[in-house]
Amino acid sequence: MTRAGTAGDAVAQWRSWAASTAPADRRRAETGIRRAYRLTGLAEPERVVWARSPCEGVGLVRALQDKGASVREVVRSAPWAAERRRLHEELGAAGWATHWADTGGRLWDLTQALVDRIREGVLDELGGGPEVRLVLLDAVLGQHDAPWLAAFPGREGPLDGLAEVCRSAGWWWPFERVAVVCERPSALHRDEAGRLDRGDGPALAFPDGFALHAWRGMPVPASFVEELRTLTPERIRSEENAELRRVMLEFYGYDRYLADSGARPVHRDETGTLWRIDLDGDEPVVMVEVLNSTPEPDGSHRTYWLRVPPATRTARQGVAWTFGLDAAVYAPLRET
Description:
By secondary structure, the chain is of the alpha+beta class. The protein has 2 domains: 3-184, no CATH class; 233-322, no CATH class. Helices cover 46% and strands 13% of the residues. It has helices at 3-18, 26-39, 54-63, 72-102, 105-126, 130-137, 146-150, 160-168, 222-228, 233-238, 242-252, 254-260, 315-322; strands at residues 47-51, 172-174, 178-182, 187-188, 204-205, 211-212, 214-215, 218-219, 267-269, 272-277, 285-291, 303-308.
């Protein structure tokens, strides 16, 4: 196996840990926490307290009176900085940049977006006061530290304890006498672009009921998701929030909405049919209905719906736009 192949396999493994919804392996996580303390010369925490979500974890951190001072800087920040400095000196600036792009950089965007959404969700749930924000920023991210940990070769070193927690559990908070550690999510649903996405329940859920709802990455209320299953054209038209109305249209289906709302075509030619949906307080939805000239195995012809700019006036202009062409030069081949 090539070194590139080995690196790719390692990144895939870290990605699986970052996205895991399996129950935490509490024994391994606690072993990792205690090792993380020992590797930095600290005494092990007197006890490890479990929370069912980051939201519950923040509540526990705020309520515990005997936890002592935070040791995050010693347990997580300093060892990571030392390892990064060591590898940077070993590889050089250009080598480090390439190495990061091939390892942690491949996980960063998706994982960081999820971390940001969890923080926002906790702030919404508990209130956005400065104390809650500080507790959230003081968390070690457990499974969501995978991008950082993926960037370091698998060798015995000061990050071993942190890596074990990453493989075994969710977010955690290290204090002098107590460590608070969270369960992983119990459900995680994302679209092909990696965005939180689910139309029939929470896109991200934890065992205590803390959950985030989203459609194509856009945060939506839980009640809104429940309503998607009973949508009607009238309900879609009456929605005042333009962003939520777009979500409704995507979920309901533009073609279905056109049929059920009695819409009429605004233009038709040999390339297809142009439809327009006027929406109050928002730009109109303009689409071209195109019949695929290549038959399906059963002899039928599939219909495609192409969303085009609101200023589109003819079907030809719309189809040409999807190919990056002007309507005057677009000349589709015709089958004979």
